[in-house]
C-alpha cells in the first residue's frame, strides 16, 4: 500500500499551479497530486487575455503548462469539472461530474470572478464580465455580428477589454463612474494624458457616468444613465472589479470574510486545508496582483514539504502596466494630501509624466506615464523608507540637487535594487532569481534568462530591467545579443533548425532536441509542435507524426469547446452537398443527441457539443472525411455558384473549388489555410480575404494571396493572372508548398507575406522548373497522407484513446 500523501488542488489557475510547481521542485515525490479546474483548459496566463482579445497572440500561446506537463509529472487532472463540495471530516472533495477524491492536504485556489453590477437588465444576453477565455470568445463572436460595444469600468481591465474590442472592429465606448481613467493607479494629469492617447486610438469615453439600467427585450439594446441619457449598444462588458470565489469554502465551514481567511502560512481555519491566490484573505487583504500570489505559493509549498520558511507577511505592491501600448507605473500613496509634498514633470509633447510624493523626507508614492524606466528604483525607495531629503530632483529628474550633473546610473540603480524586488510581475521573478540564473546557471543572454526564469516571457514590460540586471551581474561576460530562438528552449530560429535537420538528417523530435542542445530536454508547448511540423514537411516519406507533440484539438481531430465537449466538421467539398449527405448528417446528429448543428462561415455543417467517447462512432456512421476544422491544415475552399447558375458568372467556380479541395485535402501547413474561388469579379466567395483566393475574370483567373478575414483583416494581393485551369492548379500548389517550406510554425500566410514581401514570393515562383519541383514535393506529401478519422476508426489501439478511464478526465490526456 502506498504511503505517499494525497494532495488535491481545487483551481487550475496561476496561483495554485505555481504552488504545485514549487512542490515538485522541492520534493517531487512527496505527494500524489490531483487537480480540479472549472475551465476546460490547461493552466494559462490570465494576464495575457487582453493580448488574445486584441489579436496579438493566440490562446495556445498563453498556456503556461500544456497537458503533457500534468502527464509527465504524474498529476491527475479534471479540467472543466469544478469541485462542488468539500467533506472536511472525511477529507474528501466531490466534483460536478461526481468524481470523489480523498486528500491529506487540500489547497483551495478558486480565484475570483468578475463583479457584475446588480443593475436592472444585467442578466440579459450580451452582458458579460472579462475574466477568462470564455469571455474572450464571447467578445470575439459578438464582434462578428454586432457593431457597438460598451465597457463599464475605466480601470486597467476595462481599458484592455476596450482595446481588444476596438481591434475586433467594434465601435467602443468606455463608461467610468469617476472623473478620470484608472483613478486607482493614476492621478488626474496622468489619467487625462492616457485618455487623450486612447481617444487618438479610437476609443470613446463617458466619464462621471452612473449606469441606471440595461435595456432590451432579450439582448441588450442600450444603457440608461442616472442623468437619463441613453447609449445604444449591442454588447456590455463589465470591468468594475473582482470578487474572491469563496462559496465552496463557506459551505465547508471555513472562516470567510471577503476572501478565505488564512494565516501567515496560508492555513485556513480547518487543519489540512490551505488557501492561496485571489480567493485568500491575509491580514484583511485579498490581493489581485500576480506577485503577491506567487509569494504566497512559495511559502505554502515550503510548508507542505516540510522545508524551512518564514511566514508570508503581506506584500507592498506596485503596478507596472502597458495600456494599449502606453507604459504606466504607480506605487504607494501617489495622490497629494495636506501633509505631503510632491515633485512632478509633465511633457505633453512626448507624452511623459513623472511624479513623486514625499512625506517626512520619505518617498511614499510615485506615478510614471510614458517612461517607466525608473519604476523599480522608485518602488525600492518606497519600500526601504530611506530619507531622500535634498535628493528629490536627482532621483526624479536625473540631475543633482545643484541643478547640474547626472543622477544615479543604470548600474547604480540595479545595484541598489533589493534582492527580493519583483522584476517580472507576470511570473513573480525577483532580482535574486535573475542573479542566480546569471551567476550560477550560466544564463548570459536575455533569451537564456527568459528560458530559465520566465522573466520577460509574458507581456515583456520588464525586458529593459532584465537586460540591465544581465549587464549588472554578467559584466563583460554578457553573451552576444543574438536573435531569439523559436522558444526559450533554444537559441536556434526556424531557418537554422530546418537547415540543421536537413544537413544532419535528424528524423525525430527527440533527436533534434538532443543534437541541437535544447535547454529543456523535453521541450515545451511551443517548440514540440513546430518541430513535429518541420520534420514532417522535410521528410514526408519517412517521418512518423508524433501525436504527443500536438495540441489537444489535433490529438483528437476535433475542436474542444468551452464545456469540454468537441465539434465535428466533416469535409464538404466546395460547400456543395447532396440530399443523401444531409440526411446522413441529420440522422447521426439526432442519434447522438448533438446539441447544435450549425452552418459555418466556410459553407460546412458543424456538429457541436459531442462527447469525446462518441467521436469515433460519429465519424464511422457519417462515413465522410475529416474537414480538419481543428488543425493547422487546409480548412475550406469556399465557392460561389459561378457560371453553373449565376447570370454574372464567367467561369465554373464550383468545379474549380471542388477540384482544388479534393486534391489539397489533408494538406498540413504551418497554420490553418483557407481558400475560395469566385466565379466573377463580384467576388461572392470573398476570395480576396483568404490565404489564397481564385477570382474569375473574362477568359482568365486571378490568384490573390496573403489575405485574412479574422481579427486582423488583410486584403489579399495579386500573385498572378493565368488562363487555364491547369495553370491555376500549378501556381496554387507551388505557392502553398513554398509557404509550407518557408513560413514559421503558426504563421498565417497574411503575416508571412507581410514579413517576406510579395515580390520575394513572385521571384521564387517565376521559374517554371522551380514551380514544378514545388508541385512535385507537395504531391509527394499529399500522396502519403491518410484521413485521421478513418485511421482511428480502423485502429482499435487508437480508438481506445477515446474511451474514458475510471478516475481520469478525457480532455486532459
From TrEMBL:
Keyword vocabulary terms for this entry: 2Fe-2S, 4Fe-4S, FAD, Flavoprotein, Heme, Iron, Iron-sulfur, Metal-binding, Nitrate assimilation, Oxidoreductase
Domain NADH-rubredoxin oxidoreductase C-terminal: 318-385
Residues of the FAD/NAD(P)-binding domain: 6-282
Required cofactor(s): siroheme; FAD; [4Fe-4S] cluster; [2Fe-2S] cluster
InterPro entries: BFD-like_2Fe2S-bd_dom (IPR007419), BFD-like_2Fe2S-bd_dom_sf (IPR041854), FAD/NAD-bd_sf (IPR036188), FAD/NAD-binding_dom (IPR023753), FAD/NAD-linked_Rdtase_dimer_sf (IPR016156), NasD-like (IPR052034), NiRdtase/SiRdtase_haem-b_fer (IPR005117), Nit/Sulf_reduc_fer-like_dom_sf (IPR036136)
Protein name (database record): NAD(P)/FAD-dependent oxidoreductase
SUPFAM superfamilies: FAD/NAD(P)-binding domain, Nitrite and sulphite reductase 4Fe-4S domain-like, Nitrite/Sulfite reductase N-terminal domain-like
Amino acid at each position: 500500500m502506498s504511503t505517499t500523501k494525497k494532495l488535491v488542488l481545487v483551481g487550475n489557475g496561476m496561483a495554485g499551479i505555481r504552488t504545485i510547481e514549487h512542490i515538485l521542485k522541492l520534493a517531487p515525490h512527496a505527494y500524489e497530486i490531483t487537480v480540479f479546474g472549472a475551465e476546460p483548459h490547461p493552466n494559462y496566463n490570465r494576464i495575457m487575455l487582453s493580448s488574445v482579445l486584441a489579436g496579438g497572440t493566440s490562446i495556445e500561446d498563453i498556456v503556461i503548462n500544456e497537458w503533457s506537463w500534468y502527464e509527465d509529472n504524474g498529476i491527475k487532472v479534471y479540467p472543466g469539472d469544478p469541485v462542488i463540495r468539500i467533506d472536511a471530516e472525511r477529507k474528501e472533495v466531490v466534483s460536478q461530474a461526481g468524481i470523489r477524491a480523498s486528500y491529506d492536504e487540500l489547497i483551495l485556489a478558486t480565484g475570483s470572478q468578475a463583479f457584475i453590477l446588480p443593475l436592472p437588465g444585467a442578466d440579459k444576453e450580451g452582458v458579460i464580465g472579462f475574466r477568462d477565455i470564455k469571455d474572450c470568445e464571447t467578445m470575439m463572436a459578438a464582434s462578428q455580428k454586432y457593431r457597438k460595444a460598451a465597457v463599464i469600468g475605466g480601470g486597467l481591465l476595462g481599458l484592455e477589454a476596450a482595446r481588444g474590442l476596438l481591434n475586433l472592429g467594434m465601435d467602443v465606448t468606455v463608461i467610468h463612474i469617476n472623473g478620470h481613467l484608472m483613478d486607482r493607479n493614476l492621478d488626474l494629469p496622468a489619467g487625462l494624458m492616457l485618455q487623450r492617447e486612447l481617444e487618438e486610438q479610437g476609443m470613446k469615453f463617458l466619464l462621471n457616468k452612473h449606469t441606471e439600467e440595461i435595456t432590451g427585450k432579450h439582448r441588450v439594446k442600450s444603457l440608461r444613465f442616472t442623468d437619463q441619457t441613453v447609449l445604444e449598444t449591442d454588447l456590455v462588458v463589465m470591468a468594475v472589479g473582482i470578487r474572491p470565489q469563496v462559496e465552496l469554502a463557506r459551505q465547508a465551514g471555513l472562516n470567510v470574510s471577503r476572501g478565505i481567511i488564512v494565516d501567515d502560512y496560508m492555513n485556513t481555519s480547518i487543519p489540512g486545508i490551505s488557501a492561496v491566490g485571489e480567493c485568500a484573505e491575509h491580514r484583511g487583504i485579498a490581493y489581485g496582483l500576480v506577485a503577491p500570489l506567487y509569494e504566497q505559493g512559495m511559502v505554502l509549498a515550503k510548508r507542505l514539504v516540510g522545508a524551512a520558511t518564514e511566514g508570508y507577511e503581506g506584500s507592498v505592491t506596485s503596478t507596472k502596466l502597458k495600456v494599449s501600448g502606453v507604459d504606466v507605473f504607480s506605487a504607494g500613496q501617489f495622490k497629494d494630501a495636506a501633509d505631503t509634498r510632491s515633485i512632478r514633470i509633465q511633457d505633453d509633447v512626448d507624452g511623459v509624466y513623472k511624479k513623486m510624493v514625499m512625506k517626512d523626507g520619505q518617498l511614499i508614492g510615485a506615478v510614471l506615464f510614458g517612461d517607466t524606466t525608473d519604476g523599480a528604483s522608485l518602488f525600492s525607495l518606497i519600500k526601504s523608507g530611506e530619507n531622500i531629503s535634498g535628493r528629490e530632483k536627482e532621483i526624479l529628474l536625473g540631475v543633482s540637487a545643484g541643478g547640474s550633473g547626472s543622477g544615479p546610473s543604470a548600474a547604480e540603480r540595479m545595484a541598489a535594487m533589493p534582492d527580493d524586488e519583483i522584476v517580472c510581475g507576470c511570473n513573480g521573478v525577483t532580482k535574486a532569481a535573475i542573479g542566480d540564473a546569471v551567476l550560477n546557471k550560466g544564463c548570459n543572454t536575455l533569451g537564456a534568462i527568459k528560458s530559465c526564469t520566465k522573466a520577460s516571457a509574458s507581456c515583456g514590460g520588464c525586458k529593459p530591467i532584465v537586460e540591465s540586471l544581465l549587464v549588472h551581474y554578467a559584466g563583460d561576460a554578457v553573451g552576444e545579443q543574438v536573435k531569439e530562438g523559436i522558444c526559450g528552449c533554444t537559441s536556434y530560429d526556424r531557418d537554422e533548425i530546418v537547415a540543421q535537420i536537413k544537413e544532419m538528417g535528424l528524423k525525430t523530435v527527440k533527436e533534434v532536441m538532443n543534437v541541437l542542445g535544447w535547454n529543456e530536454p523535453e521541450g515545451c508547448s511551443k517548440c514540440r509542435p513546430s518541430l513535429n511540423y518541420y520534420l514532417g514537411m522535410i521528410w514526408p516519406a519517412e517521418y512518423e507524426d508524433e501525436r504527443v507533440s500536438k495540441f489537444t484539438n489535433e490529438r483528437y481531430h476535433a475542436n474542444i469547446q468551452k464545456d469540454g465537449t468537441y465539434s465535428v466538421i466533416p469535409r464538404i467539398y466546395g460547400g456543395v452537398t447532396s440530399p443523401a449527405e444531409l440526411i446522413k448528417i441529420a440522422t447521426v446528429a439526432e442519434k447522438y443527441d448533438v446539441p447544435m448543428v450549425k452552418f459555418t462561415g466556410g459553407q460546412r455543417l458543424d456538429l457541436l457539443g459531442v462527447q469525446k467517447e462518441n467521436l469515433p462512432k460519429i465519424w464511422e456512421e457519417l462515413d465522410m472525411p475529416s474537414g480538419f476544422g481543428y488543425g493547422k491544415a487546409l480548412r475550406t475552399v469556399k465557392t460561389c455558384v459561378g457560371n453553373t447558375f449565376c447570370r454574372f458568372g464567367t467561369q465554373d467556380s464550383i468545379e474549380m473549388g471542388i477540384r482544388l479541395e479534393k486534391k489539397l485535402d489533408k494538406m498540413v501547413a504551418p497554420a490553418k489555410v483557407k481558400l475560395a474561388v469566385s466565379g466573377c469579379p463580384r467576388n461572392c466567395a470573398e476570395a480576396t480575404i483568404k490565404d489564397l483566393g481564385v477570382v474569375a475574370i473574362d477568359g482568365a483567373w486571378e490568384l490573390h494571396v496573403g489575405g485574412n478575414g479574422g481579427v486582423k483583416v488583410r486584403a489579399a494581393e495579386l500573385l498572378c493572372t493565368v488562363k487555364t485551369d491547369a495553370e491555376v492548379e500549378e501556381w496554387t500548389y507551388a505557392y502553398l508548398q513554398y509557404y509550407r517550406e518557408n513560413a514559421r510554425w503558426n504563421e498565417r500566410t497574411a503575416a508571412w507575406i507581410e514579413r517576406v514581401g510579395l515580390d520575394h514570393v513572385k521571384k521564387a515562383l517565376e521559374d517554371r522548373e522551380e514551380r514544378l519541383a514545388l508541385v512535385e514535393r507537395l504531391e509527394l506529401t499529399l500522396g502519403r497522407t491518410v484521413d485521421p478519422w478513418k485511421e482511428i476508426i480502423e485502429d482499435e489501439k487508437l480508438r481506445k484513446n477515446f474511451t474514458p478511464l475510471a478516475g481520469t478526465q478525457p480532455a486532459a490526456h
